[in-house]
Amino acid sequence: MSDLHPTVEVGRFVTVLLRRWRTIVVCLVVAMIAAAAYLALAPTSVTATAQVNIEVITDQPFSGQRQPSALIDAATERELARSTEVVERAAEALGGGITARQVRRGLSVEVLAGATVMRIGYTADNATTAVKVADEVASQYLRYRGELATERQQAALAPLIERRDALQAQLQQAATGRTALLNELSQLVSQISGITTLGTSGGTFLVHASDVAPTVSPRSTTVLAAAGLLGLLGGAVLAVVADAVRRRVHDATDVVAGGGGPLLASLRARQPAELASEHDADALLTAWHRLRPQIDVDVPVMLVVGASDGAPAAEVAQALEQAAGAVEAMEAMESGSPTMTRRPRAVPVPAEEGHAVALRLAPRAGLVVIAAEKGRTTVREIDALVDHLAAVSVRPAGTVVAHRFREAGTAPHRRGVGGGPTPLALEAGAAEATGRGGRQ
């Protein structure tokens, strides 16, 4: 049985979701409406991104075995791209009233790990501005890096060139020691040549912001999809919680959970005339066959007690009484004599009349059947009724689950109003039924 337990729990979970699908749909609709309102009210932002390749800035040739990305300080490059010099140059080049503060506010810079690629993005309220600013900042950043590279190169070359010129002057005047001077001069020329070959471009464009479609935020598809998912999950959670707090009766599992005994019948009819359908007629006959061995032949009275307001106790009682009469009549015809000496009777006690009548009549009846309204009676209501019956030493023989019967044009039943039976009338009727059961 332990192996079946997870399957049962999953099945129960699915059943709850199917029964409370309206709750899930309502949550989904609310979430989608909220998402639509957010998309309508939230400001739209557009982000354009340019990608550049960063050249290493150095005044010394480096070994080809070292990766260029290892020579770049990502944090420094990010701050350089956001520096006052770059931002002010970009704002001046853009014109149109764009200030350096506005440029810096919407600017985002990212250096890809393990690479010499930088992404420069700009967020604005329209695509045109975002693209222009992103490309201009990237261009000014590369130009500024190129200027820094050139300055560093010139600073490194200046003392070497000065020394080279001095050595050349000494060679023209020296009569001895020329070999040493030539060696030193050769080394200087080699150093100057090496530094001169270092790149000073600062970097190159890989992708212009104008070459790719900008990103729009919030994205309607993403927001709606997330809202739909949250709505479904929220609805599912709410359905499960609502079922746990107020579990309603639908099938045998719910009846047993409330202690209402076995499920005698689950009727599909919504109008009394539909009780003659093949399914419900068979269910009622089967219910009587299950009840007959338990009924007292001397007091063949069934008490049908409604578990909740609206539970069709009267209709269920009448249907059970008719089913019992049909079975007994058929068997009397087949055997020539009735099986039961007294005609079975069924007395309804609607929940609207309170539990007092049921508790007084239950010990005097042959057996007690609970009538529950499908999808409305709760498990707790059945449990409460069973607990009351146990107080007078009565155990229900089972439960019949049925829809609320309501003829077209009739008003809902109210206690003691509009000709409805009062508790005293019901009690008197039950006593009369018991008496008639002995005479018939």
From TrEMBL:
Residues 8-92 form the Polysaccharide chain length determinant N-terminal domain. It is found in: Cell membrane. Pfam families: Wzz. It comes from the Bacteria. Belongs to the CpsC/CapA family. It comes from Nocardioides humi. This is Polysaccharide chain length determinant N-terminal domain-containing protein. PANTHER family: CAPSULAR EXOPOLYSACCHARIDE FAMILY (PTHR32309:SF31), TYROSINE-PROTEIN KINASE (PTHR32309).
